[in-house]
Amino acid sequence: MEIFIAVASTGTTAEAGQVLAMSQSAVSAALKALENNHNAELFDRIANRLVLNPTGRQLEVRARVLLEEARQLQAELLSASPSGDLNISASFTIANHLMVDYLAAWLSRYPMAKVDITPGNTPDVVTRILNRECELGLIENETQAKGVELIPWVEDELFAFCAPTHPLAKKGRLTETDILRVDWILREPNSGARSLFDQVFASLVPQLRVRLELRHNEPILRAVEQELGVGCLSEKVLAPHLAQGALVALALPKKLRLRRKFYFCQRRQRHHRPEVTEFLNLCRGAQ
Predict the structure, then answer these.
(1) Whether the model pTM is above 0.70
(2) In terms of domains, do 176 and 253 share one?
(3) pLDDT digits (tens, 9 = 90+) for 116-137
(4) Which of 25, 37, 95, 147 has the CB geometry, 3.0–4.6 Å to 90, for a possible disulfide?
């Protein structure tokens, strides 16, 4: 419609092209397509000028109204204050143990913001990103999924741990022999923590005694407290329990250290909502 109005105002496709910063051929093609869509000619060609005919004049009235409404709507959207609303998906460890502090800072900026956080393991989060079910993901390990962009965030390390009354508690470390003898209580396969564990312990995995595989961190903590075995979770999950003496960290052999990075995960696209970028920068700046 903007092209139609420009031609009606200037009388030629060449001048309309100059107004719109388009080539004359592009303007002519667009005008022809508009006439074909309406199955009617909109201009009379008089002395190398394009003059609106009765059908064109009727369309011009409505087109100018619609174009002005579109411009007003665009201006309103550009001038609107950001709401601060967010739709995020985060891995269980991040959602349960890291997000609260960042959300507190975010809600101090946007007290009326609606923030939705959907927890899941890393594949769940990536799937939601690709399906456009959320705008930003926070995951515990890298993904090879096509169509997503990863932005490094914070460092993390997984610790082996046991109950204070476990026979290994006084020893405070695990040898490779210990690793093969103990009963393990681990996160479920494909979770961020488990993927790293299986990768680093690859040569030992076939011989490991995995007693329980659980989808959430809290049941693992409880099971270890009940001396059902040795667990392995993020330092960010374990920190308060270790500080209180409720659990004991077990040092791993140097070659089996479980270090990793957390990542922001977004769809590969040119633009993201300003609020999403602002929240991402808030999280990164807090480190």
Answers:
(1) no
(2) yes
(3) 999 998 899 999 999 989 999 9
(4) 95
Of the residues 26, 48, 79, the one at which a domain ends: 79
The pLDDT score that the predictor gives to residue 229 is 96
Distance CA 110, CA 104 (A): 10
| Pair 253, 161 in one domain | yes
Distance CA 63, CA 123 (A): 48
**Residue 75 pLDDT level (bands cut at 50, 70, 90):** low
Integer Rg of the chain from CA: 30
CATH code, 192: 3.40.190.10
Q: Give the distance, in angstroms, between the CA of residue 195 and the centroid of all CA atoms in the same chain.
A: 20
Q: Measured between alpha carbons, how far is residue 287 from residues 97, 154, 264 in Å?
A: 15, 7, 14
Helix, strand, coil fractions of the chain, as percent rounded to 5: 45, 25, 30
3-state secondary structure of 63: helix
Virtual torsion, Cα 207, 213, 219, 224, nearest 10 deg: -10
The residue segments making up the domain with residue 71 are 2-79
188 and 278 share a domain? no
Q: How many CB atoms lie within 10 A of CB 56?
A: 21
Pair (163, 147) in one structural domain: no
Instruction: Report the distance separating Cα 158 and Cα 242, nearest Å.
Output: 13
**Locus of tokens 């990863």:** 150
Both tokens assigned to 255? 């070659």
Residue 135 three-state SS? coil
Residue 271, pLDDT score: 75
**pLDDT, tens digit, 9 for 90 and up, residues 40-49:** 898 888 888 9
CB 231 within 8 A of CB 221: yes
The number of CA neighbours under 13 Å toward the Cβ of 205 is: 12
The domain spanning residue 32 has which CATH number?
A: 1.10.10.10
